[in-house]
Amino acid sequence: MGRRDINPSYDEVHPRATRYIVAHQICAVGDVRVQLDGLTHDDVIWTPYEDHRLSRPFETIYLFSGHLRLGSLSQRHMPERVLRQFGYEQSIPPSPMPTESPGAHVIDQRWLQFDHYLVTGLTAASSPSTCVPEYMSWFRTVSHHTFAEVSLEINPVLYHVIAFVVQMLSRQVSRLKMSVHIRVYLGALLVFSNA
Q1: Which residues contact 119 (CB under 8 A, 6 or more apart)?
Q2: Over the range 5-39, which residues count as b (16 or more CB within 10 Å of their CB) and which as e?
Q3: Contact (CB, 8 A) for 111 and 68
Q4: Spatial separation of the C-alpha atoms in residues 143 and 93, rounded to whole Å
Q5: pLDDT digits (tens, 9 = 90+) for 47-82
Q6: What are the φ/ψ torsions at residue 67 (nearest 5 degrees)?
Q7: Rounded-to-10 torsion of CA 35, 37, 42, 44
Q8: Where are the domains positioned within the chain?
């Protein structure tokens, strides 16, 4: 996590993804979450394409929001969820909930008319962490929270069951847009279950 090892033979004419050496290993979600929770603002590469712009200029088609396809496979492309990476102020993105693929013909037609499906109303960011004022409040309602563990003496199975229940309840609270105080209570439940 954090900053990856850079491939010494990389140069900016190659695709940006080849810049980093990727370790092929299997990680448990909990391990990755711990690493992500440990990242600081300085550990995050907010604008990964910035240095690459001289050899590959930004094109408006990158802001196409919709399904992309390769043969019979399709996947939703949602640049509005990562506007910071493109140098724009991050706004509150639409839900990433899966939607049914509209079918190959419709995907192709939308792609041919991509300019009708671009993310609009963008503001250039003054810094990599710039976001609209209400973004952080929204983010806190949809993001997971970290809790300090009081004791490691608990039965691991019981701990994971309680953590799963708290996570599911927390998601339900987010969906219902209920008070953040309830989420804090659920977090306290997890911490006190370790005592």
Answers
A1: 63, 65, 79, 80, 83
A2: eeeeeeeeeeeeeebeeeeeeeeeeeeeeeeeeee
A3: yes
A4: 13
A5: 777 777 778 888 889 999 999 998 888 889 999 999
A6: -85, 140
A7: 70
A8: 5-44, 46-143, 144-193
- Whether the CB-CB separation of 150 and 195 falls below 8 Å is answered with yes
**Helix spans in the chain (H):** 29-37, 104-112, 135-142, 156-176, 180-193
pTM of the model: 0.58
Q: Residue 160: what pLDDT?
A: 64
Contact 100, 47 (CB under 8 A): no
Separation between Cα atoms, residue 191 and residue 195, nearest integer Å: 7
Instruction: Give percent of the chain with pLDDT exceeding 90.
Output: 24
- ∠ CA 31-35-38, nearest 5°, is 140
Residue ranges with strand state E in 43-125:
66-70, 73-77
Q: At what angle do helices 180-193 and 156-176 cross, to 10 degrees?
A: 180
The arithmetic mean of pLDDT across residues 168-177, rounded, is 58
Q: Which of 126, 121, 127 is nearest to 93 (CA)?
A: 121
Comparing 37-46, 110-119, 142-151, 155-164, which segment has the lowest mean pLDDT?
A: 142-151
> pLDDT-based confidence at 28, cuts 50/70/90?
confident
